[in-house]
Amino acid sequence: MAMMTLKRLHDLLDANQDKDGLIWQGACHDCQCEVKVTATPKTDGIHINGGSVYEPEADKFIMKCDGCFGNDPALRNYQDCEVYSRVVGYLRPVNQWNDGKFAEFHDRKMFDASIR
Ligand SMILES: [Zn+2]
User: pLDDT by residue (tens digit) across 64-75?
Assistant: First the structure.
């Protein structure tokens, strides 16, 4: 799980003291519905409403609506998958290829080596 730590939440609130709290707005990671998560400091603690926020990498925030968080609190499939393939004789990540080679990659066909 990559839930935001309480210390990180406090640091973000401290860095935004001119505002009433924090707001994350965007699409739910799981169901794509619109989510608006607020974190508001009150005398009895920080009130978090509207969903949950994850920070799997520094300053990369991902939200879930309450319904999706209830179904599965774990954050899954949030990283791009790095695909390596052979290009001009050696293996390189496909997302680093030039446009021409990348287009050619999509024309490639999977070789089926199974025996029937
Ligand atoms: Zn959702």
Answer: 999 999 999 999
Give me the residues near ligand 1 (ion), CB cutoff below 5 Å.
28, 30-31, 65, 68
40 and 84 share one domain = no
Q: How far is the CA of 36 from the centre of ligand 1 (A)?
A: 11
* pLDDT digits 0-9 by tens, 7-50: 999 999 999 887 789 999 999 999 999 999 999 988 998 899 99
Question: Structural domain of residue 29, as residue ranges?
Answer: 6-71
User: Against a cut of 0.70, is the pTM above it?
Assistant: no
Report if residue 42 sits inside a domain: yes
Taking the centre of ligand 1 as the mean of its atom positions, its distance from the CA of residue 92, in whole angstroms, is 35
Give the chain as a DSSP string. Answer: --BPPHHHHHHHHHHTTTSSSEEEEEE-TTT--EEEEEEEEETTEEEEESSEEEEEETTEEEEE-HHHHHH--S--S-SPPP-EEEETTEEEEGGGS-HHHHHHHHH---------
Q: Are residues 91 and 64 in the same domain?
A: no
